[in-house]
């Protein structure tokens, strides 16, 4: 694939469609110019409404989103040096839309195609805006679908040190919030309620698994038992104790997250620690990790929130480094929902 | 010997370690039925039951909750594919159809489905249902039925 003219300052279009969000971004000389995520406004310009989920939604999102990214970057498609897409992990139907679109574009423009691993991109999101972490660093990626600790040794070199064996931590937040009566997904609502409560009011057993892996299924069940028993003898228990319950549950989940992160940092003698994924917006996690940083002398990196949730900017920045290394995909590549397994 | 009580296609489980032999019984009971529905409240142990079944089938991938991604795909040692669904966060049947779940159900591969009520209208005629009920003492009563 090295027959292409290869500028050192590439302009790359990136597409992300691994789950719910359809997103496109343009990166030029390693600087992300924009990060467009399908919204009602983008659809209104095309006279449509934003569909809620999944592959057919991506199909109607992708043209407006890509168009908008190119327009806002002030370039036309003939100025692109490569097209990048999320290959996996994710939902096959959703991945297919981005993959097919990127392949068609690369073929018709006769430019290289770059396949990006969604999880690798989360870790690379720390290179969108300064300050950048130094290698090696640890990245805790926490979202509705993922919970893992990675050792990032170079731009495109990382090892997964531990991951959840059942539920992702974001899922635990959302489902426990549901048990407390919040609408699903209620993780962010639980977080704001927790700020008014006492984190030591209730104790919940945290689940221990070996090594640096996580398990969040047991605490969900423990909270369920606890609430059932408490409501049996006092029907107003949840309403009266809501802030304390939220604060205590949040405290327990964050304890579990940070314990393994601290162990990983000790084992690998690392003081550069980053967090990524949608749950890095959680105020409790941000507060506790900052406290830890002071105690342990860590330097902490948290990307801007728009780069924490699923987004194309992180795909774009990863693609930039792949471009510089000449890591291109051939046009017969297909999406891989199991990528990383 | 693992200690569980069995009444017909019913299992009373008091420890997660008892799930593996139960999984083997369910596999035997299912025969060539490839679509399996898992009912039970949040926290009842649907994903945990599916983990035990996948382990018994020799699945090599990590089996984790598909609530966020809706579908997860696994392979076993022989390369056979398994689909693990969770329709908890979907709002209507149209969303499930948009994902193409009818095509997965017709694929001939194992389909393990959590929160299956949403897709009831498009299920194939042959499926088994695994109901997991939390008992007052926190034991789990697992009932398996077959639809032909």
Structure description:
- Chain A has 341 residues and is an alpha/beta fold.
- Chain A has helices spanning 40-44, 54-73, 92-109, 118-124, 169-179, 187-194, 217-233, 237-267, 283-296, 312-325, and strands at 11-16, 23-28, 31-37, 82-88, 113-117, 137-142, 147-154, 157-163, 272-276, 299-301.
- In chain A, helix 3 links the parallel strand 4 and strand 5 (113-117).
- Chain A is built from ten helices and ten strands.
- In chain A, 43% of the residues lie in helices and 18% in strands.
- Chain A is globular, with a radius of gyration of 21 Å.
- With 148 residues, chain B is an alpha/beta fold.
- Chain B has helices at 19-30, 46-57, 93-99, 101-105, and strands at 5-6, 10-13, 35-39, 71-75, 81-86, 110-114, 127-134, 140-147.
- In chain B, helix 1 (19-30) packs across helix 2 (46-57).
- The chains are: A alpha/beta (341), B alpha/beta (148).
- Chain A binds chain B through residues 19, 51-57, 89-94, 143-145, 163-168, 170-171, 174-175, 178-179, 184-185, 217, 220-221, 223-225, 337-338, 341, and chain B through 41-43, 45, 47-48, 51, 60-62, 64-65, 67-75, 88-91, 95, 98-100, 138.
């Amino acid at each position: 694939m090295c027959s292409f003219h290869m500028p050192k300052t590439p302009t790359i279009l990136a597409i992300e469609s691994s789950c719910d969000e359809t997103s496109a971004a343009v990166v030029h000389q390693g600087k992300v110019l924009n990060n467009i995520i399908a919204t009602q406004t983008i659809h209104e310009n095309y006279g449509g409404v934003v569909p809620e989920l999944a592959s057919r939604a991506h199909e109607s999102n992708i043209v407006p989103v890509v168009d908008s990214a190119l327009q806002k970057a002030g370039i036309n498609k003939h100025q692109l040096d490569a097209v990048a897409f999320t290959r996996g992990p994710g939902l096959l139907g959703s991945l297919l839309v981005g993959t097919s679109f990127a392949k068609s574009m690369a073929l018709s423009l006769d430019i290289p195609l770059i396949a990006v691993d969604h999880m690798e991109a989360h870790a690379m999101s720390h290179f969108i805006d300064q300050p950048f972490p130094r290698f090696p660093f640890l990245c805790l990626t926490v979202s509705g679908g993922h919970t893992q600790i990675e050792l990032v040794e170079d731009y495109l070199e990382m090892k997964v040190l531990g991951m959840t064996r059942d539920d992702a931590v974001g899922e635990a937040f959302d489902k426990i919030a549901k048990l407390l009566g919040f609408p699903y997904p209620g993780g962010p609502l639980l977080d704001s309620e927790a700020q008014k409560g006492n984190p030591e009011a209730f104790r919940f057993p945290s689940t221990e698994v070996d090594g640096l892996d996580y398990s969040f299924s047991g605490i969900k069940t423990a909270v369920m038992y606890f609430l059932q028993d408490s409501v049996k003898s006092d029907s107003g228990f949840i309403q009266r104790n809501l802030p304390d319950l939220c604060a205590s549950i949040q405290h327990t989940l964050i304890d579990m997250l940070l314990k393994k992160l601290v162990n990983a940092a000790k084992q690998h003698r690392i003081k550069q620690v980053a967090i990524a994924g949608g749950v890095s917006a959680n105020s409790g996690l941000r507060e506790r990790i900052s406290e830890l940083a002071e105690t342990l002398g860590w330097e902490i990196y948290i990307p801007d929130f728009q780069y924490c949730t699923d987004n194309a900017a992180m795909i774009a920045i990863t693609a930039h480094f792949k471009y510089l290394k000449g890591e291109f995909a051939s046009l017969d590549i297909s999406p891989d929902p199991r990528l990383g397994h | 010997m693992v200690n569980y009580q069995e009444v017909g296609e019913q299992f009373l489980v008091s420890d997660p370690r008892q799930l593996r032999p139960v999984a083997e019984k369910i596999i035997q009971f299912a025969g060539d039925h490839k679509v399996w529905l898992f009912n039970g409240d949040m926290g009842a142990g649907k994903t945990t039951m599916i983990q035990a079944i996948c382990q018994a089938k020799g699945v090599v991938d990590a089996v984790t909750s598909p609530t966020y991604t809706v579908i997860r795909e696994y392979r076993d040692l022989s390369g056979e594919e398994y689909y693990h669904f969770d329709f908890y966060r979907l709002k209507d049947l149209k969303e499930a159809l948009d994902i193409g779940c009818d095509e997965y159900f017709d694929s001939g591969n194992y389909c393990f489905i959590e929160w299956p009520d949403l897709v009831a209208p498009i299920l194939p005629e042959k499926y088994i249902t695994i109901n997991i009920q939390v008992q007052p003492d926190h034991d789990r009563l697992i009932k398996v039925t077959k639809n032909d």
